[in-house]
Design a protein that fits this description.
Elements: H1 8-35, H2 37-49, H3 51-60, E1 62-66, E2 71-77, E3 86-93, E4 96-104
Antiparallel strand pairs: 1-2, 2-3, 3-4
Helix pairs in contact: 1-2, 1-3
């Protein structure tokens, strides 16, 4: 059964995909209203270009609790003191993930 727990690399791929989708769908439209048309056109591209850095941040801020039938991943994201942080808790089992907690800190 331990083989059904997805590994850390799989979690990081999942988390990067979830976070980049969120940034493109929720953050980019809001940022473009405040910072203008240029950012609106470039925001998704900037998110895509930043994927390796996003993956590194997720890797550095995630702890894994490996249990017999599943794993729990806790990620605490914070980008400097000028923005709020986010806390995510995700369970991984049977080669899939489910984020059951996402909080702005």
């Amino acid at each position: 059964m331990v083989l059904t727990n997805p590994g850390r690399e799989a979690y990081e791929s999942y988390a990067v995909e979830q976070l980049t989708s969120y940034l493109k769908e929720s953050v980019c439209p809001e940022a473009s209203q405040e910072l203008g048309e240029f950012l609106q056109r470039q925001c998704s591209t900037l998110v895509d270009v930043g994927r390796p850095q996003i993956q590194q941040i997720i890797s550095e801020t995630t702890e894994r609790q490996n249990l017999i039938f599943f794993s729990i991943y806790r990620t605490n994201l914070s980008v400097g003191s000028f923005s709020r942080g986010y806390k995510f808790e995700t369970v991984g089992a049977f080669q899939t993930f489910f984020t059951y907690e996402a909080q702005q800190q």
